[in-house]
Amino acid sequence: MTDFYALIKCQHEHVSTKPEFIYARCNAEQEARNMLDNRVGRFTQDDFISFFQYCNTERVPLNNKTTELKGHATYRRFNPAFMGNNRKLLLSSIEELNLRTERLWKSNGALPEALSRFWSHPQVKGAGIGFPSMIVYLKDQEKYNVWLPSLAKALGYFKDGDKFSTTSRNIENYLKFNNAINDDLRRPFGLKPQEVDYLLYFIGKSFSDDNGIVSG
Fold it and tell me: Between these two residues, 173 and 2, which has the higher pLDDT value?
């Protein structure tokens, strides 16, 4: 059985606190935030492609057996949320995507309500839960986290079977996911926002390895 606390402590101490790790993610997030500040609602296809790349930027270990970081950034942080078919679907409705993105980014103090509206109306193809939660995360990353099925599943392992459904896209489930991360991961371990998804990835992988499940 995996000792998740020991796993998180180890990865936090030896990987995710490294300046290069934090810088790659913080810098890319700020570039994405700058794009939203300057051009939200008017993104071209190339703008969205650049934005997705910033969202996916990371610098992580060479492999699972070392804490030595790669010598360059890669673009797989939230892969496949902003890659492949999801990206094609998102780019197939740029006008609607621009409208929804602008409403989320300019929602000010009403982020939960804006997110609820995003999910309650006909959705932008490919947006799912990852894209709107990324916008919310970039707007207020001290409170919100990116919501993806793989991260919710890993959090369930860490929380000893507690389930964080991504099937029902609603604000109640999203806030439950955020509260658990903030109360049981961020604050106890003193994590920066950029560390959360990386450490959840290791929780999920460790559980799969323990149970003989081959990771993708």
Answer: 173
pLDDT of residue 212: 45
Residue 134, token pair as written in the block: 């990324």
Task: List, for residues 68-85, the tens digit of each pLDDT value.
Answer: 999 999 999 998 888 888
**Long-range Cβ contacts of 80-86 (<8 Å, 24+ apart):** 81/55, 81/128, 81/130, 81/131, 81/134, 81/146, 81/148, 82/52, 82/55, 82/56, 82/130, 82/131, 82/134, 83/52, 83/56, 85/126, 86/126, 86/128, 86/130
pLDDT value at position 147? 95
Give the model confidence (pLDDT) of 133-189 as tens digits.
999 999 999 999 999 999 999 999 988 777 788 888 889 999 999 999 999 999 999
Query: Alpha helix locations (H) across the chain?
Result: 4-11, 19-39, 45-56, 84-91, 94-105, 111-120, 130-139, 149-158, 171-181, 187-189, 196-210
Sequence-distant (6+) residues with CB within 8 A of 152 are 164, 165, 166, 177
Phi, psi of 57 (to 5 degrees): -70, 135
Asked if 28 and 22 touch (Cβ cutoff 8 Å), the reply is no
